[in-house]
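Structure (tokenized):
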């Protein structure tokens, strides 16, 4: 059952926010709905520093360009999860260089990491008085990685709510939409100005490239993340 907008007006949300297109769409979605919104990022040494810098720029641009959202945007949190490096493939396999796998993820990928991220987020949310976690997990574009699946997150929502003895809702607004529909979602939330903000300030490229600006934003243009983003934008423009 979907709660009415009124039911959300007093709730506080914590958004898993990486500074990429998807989590920026989630942040705007949450700012539209909830009374107060805080953001959480994870620093686990895999992503480029540029992404952590983009997080702060996106936050400040959202607040500047959309004052009503700025009034709701609360604290930002950055958790050091460098310990994930100890259980990644590269750490467990000697002399293996960080490389891109056929599935489009770096081999430093940690299985089930979204379960870890959301559990840390829930603990923080509880302490911050937030009862909603918002994440950009999606079944549509990532071949249904098991820890991104809707049923996995539904089960985790129940486990977290029981374990905390407090309601903890996991919202995933992108779960069943395509990348093209993500652009349409941000347009519906903040018009062309929000899509321009996404293009100009969010970062998705796996290689950390921000020198070349394409119609869809900055990136190398050839890594799996750039290809996905470019294809989604082209589809969005075509419709
Ligand atoms: Zn790229």
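Design, position by position:
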């Amino acid at each position: 059952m979907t709660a009415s907008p009124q039911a959300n007006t007093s709730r506080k949300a914590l958004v898993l926010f990486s500074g990429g297109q998807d989590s920026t769409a989630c942040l705007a979605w949450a700012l539209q709905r909830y009374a107060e919104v805080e953001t959480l990022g994870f620093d686990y040494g895999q992503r480029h520093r540029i992404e952590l810098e983009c997080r702060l720029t996106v936050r400040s641009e959202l607040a500047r360009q959309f004052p009503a959202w700025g009034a709701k945007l609360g604290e930002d949190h950055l958790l050091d999860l460098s310990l994930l490096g100890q259980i990644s493939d590269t750490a467990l396999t000697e002399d293996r260089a960080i490389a891109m796998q056929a599935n489009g993820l770096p081999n430093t990928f940690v299985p089930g990491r979204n379960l870890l991220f959301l559990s840390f987020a829930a603990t923080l949310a509880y302490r911050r008085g937030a009862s909603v976690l918002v994440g950009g997990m999606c079944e549509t574009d990532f071949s249904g990685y098991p820890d991104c699946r809707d049923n996995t997150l539904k089960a985790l929502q129940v486990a977290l709510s029981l374990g905390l003895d407090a309601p903890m809702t996991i919202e995933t607004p992108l779960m069943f939409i395509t990348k093209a529909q993500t652009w349409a979602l941000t347009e519906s939330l903040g018009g062309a100005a929000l899509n321009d903000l996404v293009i100009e300030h969010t970062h998705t490229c796996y290689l950390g490239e921000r020198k070349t600006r394409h119609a869809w934003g900055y990136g190398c243009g050839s890594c799996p993340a750039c290809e996905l983003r470019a294809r989604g934008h082209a589809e969005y423009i075509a419709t």
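Reviewer-requested clarification: Residues 213 and 219 are 7 Å apart (CA to CA). The mean pLDDT is 88.
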